[in-house]
Structures are given as C-alpha cells and as structure tokens.
C-alpha cells in the first residue's frame, strides 16, 4: 500500500508541476499503451501515455451551455498540451459518445487565456462611499493585495449595511452560493429571479397542468422519438444550442423515417441537417400561427371523413375547450372554441387573420394544420426562444392547446412540449443523480426578490414589484456580482451601466475582465473550475460526469469558496461554521452520494464502490459502500453512461400515467386536467405586471411586430421597422467564451440580415451596419443571407459589450443594447421581442473582432 498524500507531495515537488492527485496515482501506475494517445480509449484514461507523452485527465466543461460532454486534457509536466473528447466507448446510435463542441474543445484557451485576471485590483479613483462613480467602466486599475481588497469589501459591507440596511446589498450570483452565503451571515441581501431561460414556461406550466411537463418531463425519451412520423422543431435549433449527442439522436429519428418541419425566423443548421421544410416566421407571433392552425383544424374537421380534432382527448383530459367543458364559476362564453370562431369578438382566427401577423401564407398555415392534425404520430417540439418574449404566456397556452387538440400527447411517437437545453429530444427521469456536497445551506433573512426585468430600474427608481405582494421600496447601494454576467445578459445594458454608476459600491469576482468586472470598483480574481478540487455534474438523463483539478489556481486567483471563507474572516466570522468540510471532502461526498438507476428502471443504487482504502487514500471521512463501479474507475473515466436499447426499462412517455388513468394520476393544475381555460393563471397575473387571459388569446407583444409600424392599418412603417431576435450562438455560452481569440477566429460574429432588406438599404455583405432604438445603439458587420425572414435581424446572443463613451455606440453588437425593459405578464423576460432601425454605418468600418485588443490589464 502506498501513502497517497506523500506521493502527491513528492510528485509535485519532484516535477514542479501542478498536476493533482489522480494524475499522481496514474503516473505511478502507468501502463504503456503502445504508440499513440488515441489508442484504445479505455486503456489510456488517467494513465501516462507511451513515451512519457503525458496523462489524460477529465477536465471541467462547466458552463450553462445547453449540454454536458466529456472533456479530456493531456497534461504533460504540468502543462495542458492537448484536448480531446469522449472516446471511452465505441460510438453507436443507442449508446452515443458524449462528444464536445468547439467551445469545450477550446476550454484550455479560456483557462490559459492571456486576459486572465492575475491580482485583486481596485479602480484608481475609487474610495469608500464610491469616489467618482461616473468613472466606472473607464477608470484605470490599480493592483492591490488580497488583504487590502478584502478589508475594503468587509468595511464597505458593514458601512452600507449599517447606513441603508441589508436590503441595500444586491447579490447577482446565479450558481455559486459563496457570496450569497457570506451576505446571508451578515443579515441578508436582496436578490433577483426571473424567467431568463424558460421564458413564459417557467411560471405557467404547473398552473396549466402541463405539469412538470413541457419542462423536464414534458416529452418522451429519445428512443421513442424514433416512433414519430413528423417532428416539428418550433423555434428550436439543437445543432447550435444543444451540442453533444442531441443532433445525432434526431438523425436516428430521421433515419427511422420521420419528416421534419422547422418554424423559425432562421433557416437553421438543424433545418439543414434534418432536411426540414422551413416555415419562416416573425419573432413573437407564434401564438397567432398556432391559432390559425387550430382554426383550420376546427374548420376542416369531420369526425368521419377527415378527423383532425381529437374530441375524445379534449373531452376526457382538458377543460375550457368549449362551453360544455368550462370550469365551475367561469363564464361559458369565455370558452376557447368560441374565441377561435370569433363568436363573441367578431374576429374568427382564420389563417388569413394569422397570416397578417405571423407572415406565413394562409395556404401554408392550412397545410401545417392538415399535416399536424392528419398525421398519427407527431412530435411538436419547441425551444424556449419563442416563449422568451414580452407577453409570452399566450404562446405557452396556444402551443399546449394545439397538442391537446390534436391528441399528440401521452403516447408513443406523440409529444408536445419543450425540447431544449440538456433535455432536448430526450426527457424522462434522470437515470443518474449526482450526490450533494454536504455543506450546510444558510438562509437569507431578506425576502426581496426583484424580477430580472426590473433590476436596473429598481436601482434607479428605488422600487420594484415583489411577486404575489405588490410594490416594495428598495435602496440598493452595493452590487456584488459573482458567477453571473448580469450587466451583459439582462435587458438594457445602457440602463444597467447607469445603475452601476449610481450605487456606492460594486464588486465582481471574475477570471477575466468581464463586463460586470469592468464596471466595478474592486475585482477579485477567481480560479476556474480547472483549478478547483473537482465536482460531479449531470447532463442528459443518461450520463453523470465528474472532473478533478487540472492545475493549481493561476497567478493570485482563489477558488470561489476560498474567497467566501476569507471574506467571512474579515467580517469577524468563523468560516469553519459555514464551511465545516474541505473542498476535497465536498467532492468526495458528491461522488459517494451519486446514484444510478437499477435494471428495473425504478430503484437506484450507489454509483461508486468505495473501499476503506479509497477513503484512506483520499484522506477524507466516509463509509465504504458497494456500488456499480469502483470509485477510481469513475474518476479516471470521468463519465458513467447508462447504455440504452430498445425495450429497456428506461423509456419514457410523458403524461402516460395521466392518460391511462386521469382520476388516479391528475396533473398539477387546480382541476387536475390540462387547463385550456386556466383560472389560476389569470388570477396570478392580477398581482403581477399585466393581466393574462385565462384562455390562449392573441395579445400584441410589447415591442413586437405590431410596434414596428407607425400605423398598423395603412402599414406605414415606424421609426424601428426591424424585429430583432437573439439566437444562442455557437462560439459562446451566453457571454462565456466570447473572449477566446481562437473561437473568435473560428466563428465570426455578424448580424444576419435578409438579401431583400439589405438590397433595399444598400447594404452589402460585410458592410458595417448600425442598429439603433430608444434603448441603445450597436454595430456589427452584416451577414447578408437568404435564410432569414425579411423584416427581422438575427443578432447573436452574448457578445461582450464595448461602448464608445462619446457616442454611446457599442461596437461589439451586444444583444442587450437593443432589448427593452418591459416586464409583462408574470414577469417574463422578453429578449426576442425587440425592434430597431438598421442602416449602413458611415463611420469607420469595423474590423473582425478577432483582431481587437484583448481586455488585458496593464498596471502603470
Ligand atoms: N438578449 C438576450 N439576453 C439573454 C438571452 C437571450 O437569448 N437574449 N438568454 C438568456 C439566458 S437563456 C440565460 S441562461 C442568461 C445567462 O446569463 P448569465 O448566467 O449571466 O450568463 P453567462 O455568460 O453564462 O455568465 C456566467 C458568468 O459566470 C462566470 N463564471 C464561470 N465560471 C465561474 C466560476 O467558477 N466562478 C465565478 N465566480 N464565475 C464564473 C463567467 O465568466 C460569466 O461571466 O442570459 C439570458 N440573456
Ligand atoms: N451555442 C449555445 N448553445 C446554448 C446556449 C448558448 O449561449 N450558446 N445557451 C443555452 C441556454 S442557457 C439555453 S436557455 C438554451 C436556449 O435554447 P433555445 O431557446 O432553444 O435557443 P435559441 O437559440 O434562443 O432559439 C432557438 C431557435 O429559436 C429561434 N427563435 C427565436 N425567436 C423565435 C420566435 O419568436 N419564434 C420562433 N418560432 N423561433 C424563434 C431562433 O432563431 C433559434 O433558431 O440554449 C442553450 N444552448
Ligand atoms: S456543449 Fe457544453 S459541455 Fe459540451 S463541450 Fe460544448 S461547452 Fe462543453
Ligand atoms: Mo438559459
């Protein structure tokens, strides 16, 4: 038996390297594998490759990128010299490899980027109380010690809290709780919450009774997808926004015979790969299209000769479709069928009516209705994008109702729901679950939760709407950003900057000079996940990934947790009280607590077999346990994936229990049925931002298509004639990775505009264009294409804003320069409802951003 700790120490000292413990073990037990590092996957993982060429380790790919893949790095003498992805088993359709994308494979260029923040620093003209606050974003930086930085943060925390109360501290962190923990120990902090990802789905799905459904368990699993004859991707582009094996899964459905339709303002790479019939649509008008389709279904339905509407389904599983199936207390006239027919409002929702709004020919709307209603097994799959709009709730209602009307729910090959993010095309209970860290959680005594649409306004105007309650006053004087990019990713950057220049103190923990950091007073350099102990993370339902440390924290950076602990000390707290266990113990706990589904598809067992020797070698507390695979195997491989095959016990049909027995297995709505008429939704909206009708009714969207006209009746265009939408973009994960030069080179960042519009505006491919509205101005080179809906521009999500202080123009083309600030409905983020003017820029033409100077701090 060898002494692990000693080995690690000796190893580090002898090699002067950063390599962590697993490599150390591997190095001492190396098995040469013949020539080539890409020899047999299973044999070279975690082992030193032939000829001392290095050690392959699993490295974190931890961002909110829409997927989760295996990311391996080759470490030699403490240096990462190469990356690769999943080759732990042969690739096959049923058991696909979890292959990384261009971003993950460039992770080392992010971790070792020249722009990494090296030291704590403060703004030159900062002083307690703020100093010259207008200089935020343009001041010089001064290097300071950790001691000084933490002293300033601790004393300002105390001063601001004593003067203005804990509510005046706003913490924007999303994922990491360390700064939240610190501030919770000090009496609490204001936070924010919203529907940023999900759009209108988040606050509505449970009320509508599309249950957990249309969220994580709302569609069938990927093997069942192969039973669909028609797959409609409605505002979903997995080839860009869910990397990994999802596109491959869809291809299996295609091979099995499915036809594809995409309904999207862009002809996407997914449409191209699946050879889909592309139906171009205006952003934010999908509910109008769905209503036009449903009108046609009703109009053309004949139970005998042309059964398009599934009446049995509607009658048995839903409420509110017609006057005979209304909930108690509701006015029978408010039923959905009469709304479609225009019985009381005089406006039948015909394809002609819909066409004027959504821009799709009436004949096409009719043919969509016939295809969707007339095909036996259909997957109606939507991304979150069409719901990430102002007044988005009506879309969720209309889309769900279409699935109900056509009965494409709850049986093999039939599904209606969200297909997005890590769950794209493959839902059902997770087959693996990661364990918890074992850290205690600390409650936040402050109850303020600001809607994400209102944060900057709340700071500037001193009030916000507390959900379910009403207006609250707030006086925010301290913004602490940790593990989020709020100033980039929330609506209206110019207003955000104004808010940042108003408060007394702004701090950001970051690993590069992100936009949050740029507009701060003090910036603390944070270690990336390659520099921390390790963790376990799920992805699609069939995998669990773990990674361990690749290098020690670079320069003077510290892990999030280390920063939290040191700040606690400066605030006079005992960090051991809140962090009683080491980061290594936390990693071990996550591994030990991980479970995997048993063959029966119901029960779970521990994933890792852990021996007393393992525990001793790790130097942690624990109890030996019997699991599926040895701990070392999971750590060395970095992944466990449950093999799938047709007929196994892991398949999933969404809502099947409810469909089989609705009384015994009601859905989550008040009535226990799918609610086409939803009283709860209407009621909830009365204390929120704008009222939502109980049935799917068309509502013009704030800053939507109608607002591009000065006069809707004469169709005279207004000041802002173009609709803007923000596809999630391949070169980055939101704002993350946008600073990686290799990715900038591989994947340029233009604005997409149609050939028709470009011609009318005299814009040629590559010309710099100015996009402007009352919220902001931004530049981008134009990419003139025939694959976008005329009248719309596709401005990719997440570019690092770069504003010229004199003109206010952002040369990076950040999406949130143009997105307004209009909370609607229950507080839905309206990113895909924006509009602007587009014109040829008559200033200096833009250079490709790969040639721009990086944000590297040079201290004087
Ligand atoms: N206009 C518009 N806006 C949008 C969207 C849109 O489509 N259009 N999409 C929305 C969606 S879906 C989402 S989910 C949000 C995403 O919004 P954010 O979560 O704010 O976006 P990210 O860019 O992922 O920000 C993550 C930040 O955390 C930092 N970070 C990463 N790892 C660590 C770490 O270990 N420690 C610390 N301290 N920091 C770390 C990264 O550097 C980055 O700055 O954006 C939303 N905003
Ligand atoms: N490469 C990359 N992938 C990502 C992310 C990323 O930043 N980069 N972010 C991840 C995260 S956190 C999330 S939440 C998901 C988001 O996933 P989605 O919301 O599905 O992704 P989007 O790219 O915003 O939009 C999908 C498609 O909808 C189209 N679309 C936009 N607006 C509308 C509309 O109003 N109607 C219709 N019919 N179509 C519309 C877009 O053109 C695009 O092709 O993506 C994840 N995946
Ligand atoms: S999809 Fe996400 S997890 Fe997979 S390699 Fe790309 S960035 Fe990493
Ligand atoms: Mo998201």
UniProtKB/TrEMBL annotation:
Cofactors required: Mo-bis(molybdopterin guanine dinucleotide)
Where does it sit, as one GO cellular component term? outer membrane-bounded periplasmic space
Residue ranges of every copy of the 4Fe-4S Mo/W bis-MGD-type domain listed in the record? 54-115
Q: Entry's Gene3D superfamilies?
A: 2.40.40.20, 3.40.50.740, ADC-like domains (2.20.25.90), Dimethylsulfoxide Reductase, domain 2 (3.40.228.10)
From which domain of life does this come?
A: Bacteria
Pfam families according to UniProt = Molybdopterin, Molydop_binding
**MF (Gene Ontology):** electron transfer activity; iron-sulfur cluster binding; molybdenum ion binding; molybdopterin cofactor binding; oxidoreductase activity
Query: Which keywords does this Swiss-Prot/TrEMBL entry list?
Result: Iron, Iron-sulfur, Metal-binding, Oxidoreductase, Signal
Name a single GO biological process.
Answer: anaerobic respiration
Entry similarity comment: Belongs to the prokaryotic molybdopterin-containing oxidoreductase family.
Designated name of the protein:
Molybdopterin-dependent oxidoreductase
